[in-house]
Amino acid sequence: MAAPVKSRPYRRILTSTLHRRFVHASAFVLLACYVISFFIGVKSSLFWSWFPLGPCGVRALLLFVSGLCVFILRVGQMHVGARIATSHFHNLRLAILSFNSLQTVVWYLFSAWWFSEVYKWSSSADAQLNWVNPGKSYERSHLNERPIYLHCFFIMLALVQSSMHLYLDMDEVPVPVAKRSPLTTSRRTHRLAPLSVQFSNIAPNIVFESVIIGFATAVIGPILYMLIFRRTAWSWTLYFAKLFWNFPRSAADPPGLLPPSNIMFHLRSAISGSLLVMLWQISNFLFSAFLGQVPLKKGKPLTHGAADPNGSLINGLKSKKETVLAFAFWELCLISQEFPDRRKEIFRDIDRSGGSAWSQILKASEGVLNGITSRIQEYQNPLPQAAGATDDPKEPGPKTQEMVQTLPRITQPSKNENILLASPKPNTRSEKFEAAFGPVAKSYGQSQDWTPAAKARARAAITHASNALLSPEQKRTISNSAQELKLLTSPPSASGPPNPIIQQFMKSPVGLPFRQSFANRLRGIVLDSPHSKIAPIIDATESLKCMLIASLEEDQFGKVQADVPSVVKLFTKTIMALESLVGKDGLKPHWSEVDSESLGGVQHSRSVEQVEIVINALKNGLSELLAAFSLYLNEVGVVGQDLQLAREAAKITDV
């Protein structure tokens, strides 16, 4: 018997494919750099201004470094699925409080600095972008503030682009999920337009946004430069310039109160800044467009040429990395829809370590769908906070002993002598103090005056005094103030009444970033967070449905039909859990959502598009599954209450 073939990890197969697409996207970025190189170059010679083997080509290669910085950044931070945050403030906090934010700013700053150096080198002498003006024969050399301002201007652009990159989550590789409708003929769950169509649709937006950002920064730039950057940038430049030139002491401060104010210089800055932003936007678009293509190679699945295609695919379905998992389920969905030969291979692959290929695929798909019900149950039945802090019940002894040993002792240890004997005569100072004041303290604690009757007398005295000193209106005001203080200091709940002060704050424009919308909270529960898993959820649902329906004709061993009842129960359970969460008795609006039904009297929409897509996919899959096996439901074991619940979940009246 031949030794089993070792399956190649799906991550390596995907990496090689993404690397090839990376190279293709880089070629288009180089083309964009060539066009930008033509615009920023000197037009003294018409031929050499565009000839690729001249200065224009060299500038294009140098500008390609700025675009490559964006690609390197995207490779390190790419993910599939939109970022889910409960509020705008939460989204901002997720974007800023991470190492990715620092990495993003650093790469954009380097890209902007490199572009500024290439632009300064490519400019003509009329632009006056030399670091030092030598002056006339009778003048001392002095720093030129124009290149200093230009570098600060590009730094401002880098900070603006970094903020947009983080807040808009440009690290996402978008994989759009198609909504099923009777009018569409395509069965694919992710419908992508050709690259040429995508670029023609987005090109006007790229040009418009780049011009707006470039010219807006050129307008605000001189003010920010004068208030924040000018003196620091001047001192740093002067420090390095002194290594090569001699300057008078008067050069320690920038000349005048205002930065360079030449109109043509600021116009050139705005145009060059727009070109840099355009290069960044094009690089981001090309990276997302090329790497977000279908997992096919020459019209075949990525694992088609592997030594063990099924093993590599199963390896990807079990991956913990969300990018690998998303592409693996996408490929599985394509196989279940369009490649009957691969489906037959999966059905025939029954002698595999860890179970048959189909059983492992089923287990991986069930894990994705069970994640929905698990998150819903965690929301509906939250664990107490103290549960996570308890010790392991299997080994309570050592942990408890270790904790006790670390606590400081604040009292004397318990006495082991016979308590019936007379107390010994005190010797030390502490014992004498205890003997003198101990009986007095015990008399207060053990006195019968401190009883419920005594408490009642004290309460009656306080009530009598308040009635004599305060009017009913004053007592009511004090009571309301105490209640407001209690609401303000207590943790807010999703269903309880909000504090009036906080509610007024949330209604104001200042409180808008802190409102937790119903849609975002629902997406976070159903699709997971911080990144949405809607793509693998839809692909897992479609794959199970298509594989089971295809098994009626392609499963020669007849083993797949045995899992029809479990899949029907899985779909039914998931649909019922989702409908219970989306229904009126499910997820309640958060107290911060002041425009919701419970707070503002306005009808609150409980329909969220992504969640509705998941519910419709499950219902369509369940109804098509029951229709395909309608003649064999008794034989496969879908009978009784399971069948009735499945019909109710799929909204089927007659099967």
UniProtKB/TrEMBL annotation:
MF annotations from Gene Ontology: spindle pole body-nuclear membrane anchor activity
BP GO terms, sorted: mRNA transport; nuclear pore organization; protein transport; spindle pole body localization
Keyword presence, Transport: yes
UniProtKB keywords: Membrane, mRNA transport, Nuclear pore complex, Nucleus, Protein transport, Translocation, Transmembrane, Transmembrane helix, Transport
Compartments where found: Nucleus membrane; Nucleus, Nuclear pore complex
TM helices/strands, residue ranges: 21-41, 47-73, 94-115, 206-228, 270-291
Coiled-coil region list: none
GO cellular component, one term: spindle pole body
UniProt-listed InterPro entries: Nucleoporin_prot_Ndc1/Nup
Phosphoprotein in keyword set: no
Bilayer disposition of the protein: Multi-pass membrane protein
Family: Belongs to the NDC1 family.
Protein name (Swiss-Prot/TrEMBL): Nuclear envelope protein
Source taxonomy: Eukaryota, Fungi, Dikarya, Ascomycota, Pezizomycotina
